[in-house]
UniProtKB/TrEMBL annotation:
GO BP field: intracellular monoatomic cation homeostasis
PANTHER family with a match to the protein in the record: LETM1 DOMAIN-CONTAINING PROTEIN LETM2, MITOCHONDRIAL, LEUCINE ZIPPER-EF-HAND CONTAINING TRANSMEMBRANE PROTEIN
Keyword tags: Membrane, Mitochondrion, Mitochondrion inner membrane, Transmembrane, Transmembrane helix
Main subcellular location of this protein, as a coarse class: mitochondrion
Residues that span the membrane, as ranges: 58-81
Membrane association type: Single-pass membrane protein
Gene: Letm1_1
Protein name: LETM1 protein
Record's GO cellular component terms: mitochondrial inner membrane
Pfam families named among the record's database cross-references: LETM1_RBD (PF07766)
Length: 132
Protein backbone atom coordinates (compact mmCIF):
# COMPACT_ATOMS: atom_id res chain seq x y z
CA UNK A 1 0.00 0.00 0.00
CA UNK A 2 0.79 3.66 -0.08
CA UNK A 3 2.83 5.17 2.73
CA UNK A 4 1.56 8.27 4.45
CA UNK A 5 3.44 11.54 4.06
CA UNK A 6 4.62 11.29 7.66
CA UNK A 7 6.02 7.80 7.07
CA UNK A 8 7.80 8.96 3.90
CA UNK A 9 9.40 11.85 5.79
CA UNK A 10 10.47 9.53 8.62
CA UNK A 11 11.96 7.07 6.10
CA UNK A 12 13.91 9.86 4.38
CA UNK A 13 15.23 11.14 7.71
CA UNK A 14 16.34 7.61 8.65
CA UNK A 15 18.01 7.26 5.25
CA UNK A 16 19.98 10.50 5.72
CA UNK A 17 20.87 9.61 9.32
CA UNK A 18 22.18 6.20 8.25
CA UNK A 19 24.08 7.76 5.34
CA UNK A 20 25.80 10.30 7.59
CA UNK A 21 26.53 7.60 10.17
CA UNK A 22 28.15 5.33 7.57
CA UNK A 23 30.12 8.26 6.18
CA UNK A 24 31.38 9.07 9.68
CA UNK A 25 32.51 5.46 10.17
CA UNK A 26 34.22 5.45 6.76
CA UNK A 27 35.94 8.73 7.61
CA UNK A 28 37.30 7.35 10.89
CA UNK A 29 38.62 4.23 9.13
CA UNK A 30 40.16 6.38 6.37
CA UNK A 31 41.85 8.57 8.98
CA UNK A 32 43.45 5.45 10.49
CA UNK A 33 44.63 4.40 7.04
CA UNK A 34 46.16 7.82 6.39
CA UNK A 35 47.89 7.59 9.79
CA UNK A 36 49.32 4.20 8.78
CA UNK A 37 50.46 5.62 5.43
CA UNK A 38 52.19 8.52 7.15
CA UNK A 39 54.06 6.06 9.35
CA UNK A 40 55.40 4.11 6.38
CA UNK A 41 53.00 1.17 6.25
CA UNK A 42 51.67 -0.08 2.94
CA UNK A 43 47.95 -0.39 2.27
CA UNK A 44 46.36 -3.35 0.54
CA UNK A 45 44.48 -2.82 -2.71
CA UNK A 46 41.17 -3.10 -0.88
CA UNK A 47 42.21 -0.52 1.73
CA UNK A 48 43.47 1.83 -0.97
CA UNK A 49 40.14 1.59 -2.85
CA UNK A 50 38.22 2.26 0.36
CA UNK A 51 40.41 5.27 1.13
CA UNK A 52 39.88 6.69 -2.37
CA UNK A 53 36.11 6.10 -2.18
CA UNK A 54 35.91 7.82 1.21
CA UNK A 55 37.92 10.83 0.00
CA UNK A 56 35.67 11.12 -3.06
CA UNK A 57 32.61 10.89 -0.79
CA UNK A 58 33.93 13.69 1.40
CA UNK A 59 34.40 15.91 -1.67
CA UNK A 60 30.88 15.03 -2.85
CA UNK A 61 29.52 15.91 0.57
CA UNK A 62 30.19 19.65 0.11
CA UNK A 63 27.57 20.29 -2.60
CA UNK A 64 25.23 17.81 -0.93
CA UNK A 65 25.36 19.75 2.35
CA UNK A 66 24.12 22.85 0.54
CA UNK A 67 20.88 20.98 -0.17
CA UNK A 68 20.59 19.87 3.44
CA UNK A 69 21.43 23.24 5.04
CA UNK A 70 19.50 25.68 2.81
CA UNK A 71 15.79 25.61 3.74
CA UNK A 72 13.45 24.00 1.18
CA UNK A 73 16.31 23.29 -1.21
CA UNK A 74 16.00 19.56 -0.51
CA UNK A 75 12.97 19.63 -2.80
CA UNK A 76 15.38 20.33 -5.69
CA UNK A 77 17.62 17.39 -4.75
CA UNK A 78 15.82 14.87 -7.02
CA UNK A 79 16.22 17.23 -9.98
CA UNK A 80 19.95 17.63 -9.36
CA UNK A 81 20.36 13.88 -8.83
CA UNK A 82 18.82 13.31 -12.26
CA UNK A 83 21.26 15.81 -13.78
CA UNK A 84 24.29 14.67 -11.75
CA UNK A 85 23.73 11.04 -10.67
CA UNK A 86 27.18 10.70 -9.04
CA UNK A 87 26.68 13.76 -6.83
CA UNK A 88 25.49 11.79 -3.81
CA UNK A 89 28.12 10.20 -1.55
CA UNK A 90 28.19 6.40 -1.81
CA UNK A 91 26.89 5.92 1.73
CA UNK A 92 23.61 7.59 0.74
CA UNK A 93 22.81 5.19 -2.11
CA UNK A 94 19.76 3.01 -1.81
CA UNK A 95 19.86 -0.73 -2.45
CA UNK A 96 17.90 -0.33 -5.69
CA UNK A 97 20.49 2.15 -7.04
CA UNK A 98 23.32 -0.22 -6.10
CA UNK A 99 21.57 -3.12 -7.85
CA UNK A 100 20.97 -0.95 -10.92
CA UNK A 101 24.68 -0.05 -11.09
CA UNK A 102 25.66 -3.71 -10.72
CA UNK A 103 23.28 -4.68 -13.53
CA UNK A 104 24.76 -2.02 -15.82
CA UNK A 105 28.30 -3.22 -15.06
CA UNK A 106 27.30 -6.83 -15.67
CA UNK A 107 25.64 -5.96 -18.99
CA UNK A 108 28.76 -4.07 -20.08
CA UNK A 109 30.95 -7.06 -19.17
CA UNK A 110 28.64 -9.42 -21.06
CA UNK A 111 28.74 -7.20 -24.14
CA UNK A 112 32.53 -7.09 -23.97
CA UNK A 113 32.72 -10.88 -23.61
CA UNK A 114 30.38 -11.31 -26.58
CA UNK A 115 32.52 -8.96 -28.68
CA UNK A 116 35.73 -10.79 -27.74
CA UNK A 117 34.16 -14.19 -28.46
CA UNK A 118 33.02 -13.02 -31.91
CA UNK A 119 36.45 -11.53 -32.62
CA UNK A 120 38.24 -14.75 -31.66
CA UNK A 121 35.82 -16.83 -33.76
CA UNK A 122 36.42 -14.53 -36.74
CA UNK A 123 40.19 -14.76 -36.28
CA UNK A 124 39.97 -18.56 -36.09
CA UNK A 125 37.99 -18.66 -39.36
CA UNK A 126 40.55 -16.39 -41.00
CA UNK A 127 43.42 -18.57 -39.79
CA UNK A 128 41.68 -21.71 -41.09
CA UNK A 129 41.17 -20.07 -44.47
CA UNK A 130 44.84 -19.00 -44.60
CA UNK A 131 46.18 -22.47 -43.71
CA UNK A 132 43.63 -24.36 -45.79
Amino acid sequence: GQKSLRQKVVDELKHYYNGFHLLWIDTKVAARMVWRLLHGQVLTRRERRRLLRTCADLFRLVPFLVFVIVPFMEFLLPVFLKLFPEMLPSTFETESKKEEKQKKKLNAKLELAKFLRETIAEMAKRNKADTG
